[in-house]
Amino acid sequence: MGRDAQVYETACLCQTQAVATKIIAYPGVVPKLWNDTLASHRRAVGDAILDSTAALVAAHGLRSVTMSQIAEQAGIGRATLYKYFPDVEAILIAWHERQVNGHLAHLAHVRDQQGDARKRLEAVLEAYALIAYEHHDSDLAALLHQGEHVARARAHLRDFIRDLLAEGARSGCLRDDVAPDELASYCLHALGAAGRMPSEAAVHRLVTVTLAGVAARG
Question: What whole-number distance in Å separates Cα of residue 127 and Cα of residue 132?
Answer without folding.
Answer: 9
